[in-house]
Structures are given as C-alpha cells and as structure tokens.
TrEMBL record:
InterPro entries according to UniProt: NTF2-like_dom_sf, SnoaL-like
Span of domain SnoaL-like: 69-170
Keyword terms, alphabetized: Membrane
Name listed for the protein in its UniProt record: Nuclear transport factor 2 family protein
Superkingdom assignment: Bacteria
The keyword Membrane is annotated on this UniProt entry: yes
Organism for this UniProt entry: Streptomyces prasinosporus
Statement: the UniProt record of this protein carries the keyword Membrane: yes
Length: 182
C-alpha cells in the first residue's frame, strides 16, 4: 500500500515560529527600554546632587555632634576633633581660644556627649562648595558631682567643602518657636 504523500506548505513552517518571534521582539524592546532608562539614571545630574546633599548632611551632623561632645579627661583629643571638623573663621576662633577654654573645662570637670536626633540640608550650592544644615540634637552634660542634665537644641551650621570634604565654617543656635533669628 502506498501512503499518500503529504505536501508541506510554507504556512505550516511559519505558524510555530510566529509566537517565538513575537516574544523575542518584545524581550528585545524591553531590554532596550531598560538599558536606556538605566543610562539616563546613571548620567542624571539629580543623582550627583543627591549624593552631594547626603554627604553634606552626614558631615554636618557629625561635625555638630563633635562640637557638642567633650570630656575633660581626654580634652586634647576632643579639641583636636573640634579643629579637624572645622574650617575658616570658626576653625581660627577655636584655635585661638583653645587654651582658655581647655582650662575652664578642666576646672569644671564636665563630660558632655551629643546625640543627633535629626538633620536636614537647608541649602546646597555644590559648585561653590557651600551648604547649610539644621541639626537637632540632645546634649547630656555630666558634672563632677555626678549630676546629669539633658538639653535638646537645634543648631544651624554652614559647611564649606575643603579638600573634597565638608567641614563646618560657622555654627549657631537655631531660633526656637516664634523667636526671630538674631
């Protein structure tokens, strides 16, 4: 018996490959879109600005904490940290008044520790290398008689980028409530 010969048509070959081809085209389109989106994000100025903002905030919080922490038993190390955290006029003021201040702290025999509660960058000019931060902190002062005092405060700091690092160039109390800045 002879079997009938089937004729293969072109449509029988194309049919199984059409969904695979469509799927490959969709996957290629998605890959191109994702690659373009990644490239745009990687070269976006806003990402670089956000990095500078985060670096300024971290440095500002740390510097404000440093300048509110001091132990009379290890005074030189604490004051060295103060100077390492500052630049400009603030740095000069700390250096010129260091001996008198150190003597007063030694006599008082106090230990102050600061803890940052929150912070924010209020201004950032990355091209000029200047930033301003607002930092809320809790300062605990232990006197020589063992008494402890906690004080919450808000500090306004100005930062200047020096040698690729943010340092405090000015520091002051932030106004509280309806009190005007003075």
């Amino acid at each position: 018996m002879d079997r009938p010969v089937r004729r293969l048509t072109a449509s029988r070959f194309r049919t199984p490959y059409a969904p695979a081809l469509a799927l490959a085209l969709v996957a290629g389109g998605l890959a191109a879109w994702a690659g373009q989106d990644w490239y745009s994000a990687a070269h976006d100025d806003r990402a670089a600005y956000a990095v500078q903002r985060d670096e300024a905030l971290a440095a500002g919080e740390q510097a404000v904490q440093n300048l509110n922490t001091l132990d009379h038993r290890d005074l030189d190390q604490g004051l060295d940290l103060w100077e390492a955290s500052t630049t400009g006029e603030l740095h000069e003021q700390l250096g010129s008044g260091r001996a008198d201040f150190a003597e007063r702290v030694r006599e008082a025999k106090t230990v102050s520790t600061a803890r940052v509660l929150s912070g924010a960058v209020t201004e950032l000019d990355e091209r000029a290398g200047r930033a301003r931060v607002l930092v809320a902190l809790r300062v605990t002062v232990r006197a020589s008689d063992g008494t402890r005092t906690d004080k919450d405060s808000r500090m306004l700091g100005e930062l200047t980028r020096t040698d690729g690092r943010w340092k405090l160039s000015a520091l002051g109390q932030a106004p509280v409530g309806g009190a005007p800045a003075g």
